[in-house]
Design goal:
Strand order of the largest sheet: 1-2-3-4
Shape: elongated
Largest sheet: 4 strands, antiparallel
Mean pLDDT: 86
């Protein structure tokens, strides 16, 4: 998977000091393959290129059904629930019969 061909060039920042995982914008790629990623507050992080996970745009908006996430991984799951909680949408489903509250 090529992480740097899309216009937005977003990857998950692992071990973010505040949020655990947070989406960030790739600013540059070092000669050693390490990505310099900036979060929404402007703080820079180094993410090894081999460990970088691209961010699907659907993961950023807070969907009501987790199965409709573009990528289903730990970062996307946690961020989706964080977004929905901040919007006071405390119920999130996984398919039809399962509800997380």
């Amino acid at each position: 998977m090529e992480l740097l061909t899309s216009e937005t060039r977003k990857v998950w920042i692992p071990n973010h000091p505040v949020a655990g995982y947070l989406p960030g914008r790739v600013e540059e790629t070092g000669d050693d393959g390490v990505l310099i990623v900036v979060d929404e507050s402007g703080e820079q992080f180094k993410v090894p290129g081999a460990e970088a996970q691209s961010v699907d745009p659907a993961c950023l908006i807070g969907v009501d059904d987790l199965l409709s996430l573009g990528d289903f991984n730990e970062a996307a799951l946690l961020h989706n629930i964080r977004v929905r909680y901040s919007e006071e949408k405390i119920y999130t489903g996984i398919g039809h019969p399962i509800l997380i509250s």
